[in-house]
């Protein structure tokens, strides 16, 4: 996967929009006498949060087992523990999140001698653990060039955006990746203190370890022809589009204005073959990567602390529920790639392990 602007910092991002707009508007107000402007702190907004969440029907490439009736079970639950930091400073924003995903036994940690992908039997090993980190930073054109030229109608700003992602897993397949992104972000206002950000980017996964393509896992193979000796590859740069939004449900009656909606979506283009730099060759088990969609199209958040203690404590404790959809996980074609399919009757059928469609819920606490 690649991007994830999670909605856990949605309230902070909304505050950032308000802070930026408030400073700009204040500069236009008439004054009776010139006064010395107070020194602004380096960070105008700092927001730190911890979250516990639960994915009810997660999936993981290569992680599946066979039920007694012969059907394939590729679903696993995941507990997620996250820390998120957001800040706003004079020239832009910084967003960082790190999460630990803990699977149940149907996505076993490695080594595991009875994983379903190896012996076709339900695994009884401990669940796998994945650590995933993401960083995004923006530099606003209005702030960099000291102008308002990039604010027009609902367009609030255009920014340079850079970032990176990294993950590591203790599964039998030992997957890990590193990538960088760079491009632009277009920030638009929505009603009720909301926003939507659209970022066209260049995405480069410059380091990846994937044991599906490593010689020895699914047979001896021929290094440089059917497999990679060490499973390490560097994919080709490709395009990406990342979108995230947030909006308070301000149209509700005053005694119900504790709810907000948010969401995100990231599309990542084809980045070569799944065993890059080996050429496309179904006979050798080498397939093209596919366009990846990693999304949380809707999250409904209840501001529990505001409901319990008033506006002063808004978004100190959030309870939320979301829908999560992730197709062609990590760019693997869910209908063709070796890590997503299993041999049946001379052909290959999808195990469902490379597409995730799940309810997702959690509690977020600001500190």
Describe this structure in words.
This protein is mainly beta. The protein has a domain at 130-366: Outer membrane phospholipase (ompla), Chain C (Beta Barrel), CATH 2.40.230.20. It is built from four helices and 17 strands. The strands form three sheets. It has a twelve-stranded antiparallel barrel. The chain has a two-stranded antiparallel sheet with strand order 2-3. A two-stranded antiparallel sheet has the order 15-16. The chain is globular. The chain starts with 9 loop residues before the first helix and ends with a strand. Residues 1-26 form the signal peptide. Keywords: Signal.
In short:
With 367 residues, the chain is mainly beta. It is built from 4 helices and 17 strands. Helix content is 8%, strand content 46%.
Give the arrangement of secondary structure elements:
Elements: H1 10-26, E1 43-58, E2 65-66, E3 72-73, E4 76-89, E5 92-103, H2 116-119, E6 129-140, H3 141-144, E7 155-169, E8 176-190, E9 194-209, E10 232-233, E11 238-248, E12 259-268, E13 292-303, H4 304-309, E14 317-327, E15 341-344, E16 347-350, E17 355-366
CATH architecture of the domain at 130-366: Beta Barrel
What is the first-to-last residue Cα distance? 28 Å
Question: Which sheet architecture does the biggest sheet show?
Answer: 12 strands, antiparallel, barrel
Helix content: under 10%
What is the tally of helical segments?
Answer: 4
Radius of gyration, rounded? Answer: 23 Å
Mean pLDDT: 86
* CATH fold-level assignment of the domain at 130-366: Outer membrane phospholipase (ompla), Chain C
Coarse structural class: mainly beta
Q: Which residues form runs of ≥5 with pLDDT under 50?
A: 1-11, 13-37, 116-121
Principal-axis shape: globular
Strand order of the largest sheet: 1-4-5-6-7-8-9-11-12-13-14-17
Percentage of residues in strands: over 45%
Within CATH, the superfamily of the domain at 130-366 carries the name Nucleoside-specific channel-forming protein, Tsx-like
Number of strands: 17
> Which CATH first-tier class of the domain at 130-366 would you pick?
Mainly Beta
Keywords: Signal
Signal peptide: 1-26
